[in-house]
Specification:
- With 269 residues, the protein is α+β, with helices and mostly antiparallel strands.
- It folds into 2 domains: 100 residues, no CATH class; 117 residues, MucB/RseB, C-terminal domain (Phosphorylase Kinase, domain 1).
- Helices cover 48% and strands 19% of the residues.
- It is built from 7 helices and 7 strands, in the order αααααβαββββββα.
- Strands 1-2-3-4-7-6-5 form a 7-stranded antiparallel beta sheet, sandwiched between helices.
- β5 and β6 form a beta hairpin.
- The longest helix is centred in the middle third of the chain and has 49 residues.
- The radius of gyration is 36 Å and the shape is rod-shaped.
Length: 269
């Protein structure tokens, strides 16, 4: 979004004083900028208040009648060559356009407010979805650590682990050929996160166990990059055009990052 409109521009918009080209550009900006929409409302109310205050000093009908008679008398008593002038018609000012300005300002303010509110709600929903996904990934990782069972596919060979998922997952992924120093592939599990099928790749970094959850990406479940600490575990995530991935471990963050980058880079091969 561009910078806010100047005070002069907002005042001219509220007063209906902008040229058509300027009005269109200003209206497009105000429709997207809640701050400027609020300022336009303020300008309108200020102008309306000034106009209403000025009406307190309108001349009474009797006074206007006396002044009209006096003006007519002055014209009649003037010498030859004196010509009366037609009183100019009152210039249409702000009050004449008040109706459409009220409607326009309210619609713009409501429109901008609704857009901002929708964006906030959308971001809150997306954040809640990410938090739920990370929490579930941690729970599954903890359950794996507590389980005495072997991985569903027990192998350090990526050529064994990857084909094992064929027919189980509606997508494919790559496992790095070269892992960071001190990192080994232990196997994998087929699990569900948020009711979606996911590959749980199991690694070891020294004595620390790592779960890397890989799922298919769709338009409504794209995961932004996250690097955080929760419940004593390091959590990092990434997305590619086809996949989302979340890594969970109690290992040092920098070492987990090395593995995450290796898995991410492998998807481009």
């Amino acid at each position: 979004m561009s910078e806010h409109l100047s005070a002069e521009m907002l005042s001219a918009f509220a007063g209906g004083e902008l040229a058509e080209s300027e009005l269109t550009a200003a209206q497009m900006h105000i429709d997207q900028c809640l701050s400027c929409a609020r300022q336009v409302v303020h300008e309108y109310l200020l102008k309306a208040q000034i106009t209403e205050s000025g009406r307190r000093y309108d001349a009474q009908p009797e006074f206007r009648g006396r002044m009209a008679k006096l003006a007519a008398l002055n014209v009649e008593t003037a010498g030859d060559g004196t010509h009366s002038r037609k009183a100019p018609e009152p210039k249409r000012g702000f009050t004449g356009a008040a109706g459409w300005i009220v409607a326009a300002v309210i619609l713009l303010a409501v429109g901008a407010g609704t857009a901002v509110q929708y964006e906030v709600q959308r971001r809150d929903a997306a954040r809640d979805a990410v938090n739920a996904q990370l929490a579930e990934a941690i729970d599954v990782h903890i359950a794996t650590l507590a389980s005495s069972e072997q991985p569903q596919v027990l192998s350090s060979d990526r050529h064994t682990v990857k084909p094992w998922f064929q027919g189980k997952l509606p997508f494919s992924f790559n496992i790095p050929e070269l892992l960071p120093a001190g990192t080994t592939l232990d196997g994998a599990n087929f699990v569900y996160l948020n009711n979606r099928p996911v590959a749980q790749l199991l690694f070891s970094i020294g004595h620390h166990r790592v779960s890397v959850f890989v799922e298919q990406r769709s338009g409504n479940n794209a995961t932004s990059a996250v690097a955080t600490s929760r419940a004593g575990f390091q959590v990092q995530s990434f997305s590619t055009p086809e996949l989302n991935a979340v890594a969970v471990s109690d290992v040092d963050r920098s070492r987990l990052q090395e593995l995450v980058e290796a898995v991410k880079d492998a998807q481009a091969q």
